[in-house]
Amino acid sequence: MKSEKKDIIIVGGGLAGLTCAIHLLKSGFGVTLIEKTHYPQHRVCGEYISNEVIPYLKWLDADPAGLNPTEITRLSISSANGKTINTELPLGGFGISRFALDHFLYQKALQNGCTFINDTVTAIDFKDDVFSISTAKTGLLNAKIAIGAFGKRSSLDQKMERGFIQKKSPWLAVKAHYKGDFPDDLVALHNFKGGYCGVSKVENDRINICYLTDYQSFKAHKNITDFQKQVLYKNPHLKEVFENCIPLFDQPLTISQISFEKKESVYNHILMVGDTAGLIHPLCGNGMAMAIHSAKLCAELTIQFLNGNISSRNLLEEKYEKVWNLNFKNRLAVGKLLSGIIRKGKLFAPLLNLLIKFPSILPQIIKKTHGKPII
Known about the structure:
The structure is a single chain. The protein is an alpha/beta fold. The protein has a domain at 3-64 and 97-167 and 259-344: 3-Layer(bba) Sandwich (FAD/NAD(P)-binding domain), CATH 3.50.50.60. Helix content is 34%, strand content 29%. The chain has helices at residues 15-26, 54-59, 98-111, 155-159, 215-218, 224-230, 236-243, 287-306, 313-342, 345-357, 361-369; strands at residues 3-11, 31-35, 48-50, 70-78, 84-95, 115-118, 121-127, 130-135, 140-148, 171-179, 186-192, 195-201, 207-214, 246-247, 253-258, 266-267, 270-272. α1 packs parallel to α3, α1 (15-26) runs parallel beside α8 and α8 (287-306) packs antiparallel against α9. It is globular and about 60 Å long. It starts with a strand and ends in a 6-residue tail after the last helix. The model has no long low-confidence stretch (mean pLDDT 92).
C-alpha cells in the first residue's frame, strides 16, 4: 500500500488535538489531523473551563469571547441530602459547549492551513524513527511526529494494550442540555448516592447538566429517567433543577467505562495530550483547561525538537513526561482523593461541616486542582 509522508499527524480532533494543531500551525509547521466524526458535535463534558487558559487562547488568536460564553465566578457544592457550601472561584471560569468551542477551534485550524482527514485510525506503529498510521479509508500515512488526542477511551488504546484499558472501570457519564432558570455565574456540584452532578450555564442560555455515576447503581434502574428520579432526586437541589428544566436533547449522551487510572503521557513514542494522557475527576471542573494546557506543552516541545533545539527523540519524550507530571500529576492525585472522599458519605459529611465552619479552606482546595494563568 502506498504511503504519504507528513511531518506531524494528530490523531483525534477534540479540544486538545485542535489546540495543539493551531499552536503548531501558528509556528509554521504543517499539520495533518485525523478525526473520525464531523463538526459540530456534542460531547460528554462538564463544559466549564477555568480562566487560566484565556491568555494562551488569546495568544493563539482563538479567544472564545466571541462565542458568548457565560462568565462563572461562584461555586456551590451540596451533599446528597442537600446540605450546601458556597464560595467564590479564585480565578473564575467560563461556560461554553463543546459543540460551539470545538467547531470554533476546527474553523481556526482550517483557516491556518491544517489538513483534516475524516477517517478512523486503526493502528499506529513506530519503526526506524518513523510513525506508520493506518486508516480505514485513506490508507497508510507516515509521520515524523505522532500526537495522540483520541480521548478518554478508544479502540486504539485497546490495540496498543495500554495498561489502564485492561482494568474495568465502574464509571458512567451522562450529559444533556436543558432550558430553565439557573444563575449565569454559578457552577454547582451536587452529590448523590454513587456519584455527583455538575450544573452550569453555557452559551445561548442553555444549562449543561453532566453527571458521573457508578454503573452498578445505574443498572439497577429501568432507564436514565427512572435512575434520575429514584437516585438523583434524593438531593433536593437536583430534584429542583430537573423538575424545572426542559430537556433540549432527544436523548442524553452517555459514555461508559471512563477510567481515572494512571495513563502514560508518552506511549510507544506517541505524545499523548488531553484525556488520552490523563483524566481528572469531573468534580474538579478543570478537564478542559488541562486538555488545552497539555496541548500547549506538547506543541512547544515538538517545535523545539523539529527545530533541532532538542537533540533526540528520547530527550523530547523525557522532557514531555517531566513537564506533564510537573503540571498535572499533583492535580490528578488531589482530584482522585477528593472524589474518593465525596463518594463516601461518612467521609464527606465531616469534611463539609469543616468547610462550612472554616470557609477559607475551600478556595485553597480548589487551587490544588487548578493551575495558574498560562501564557
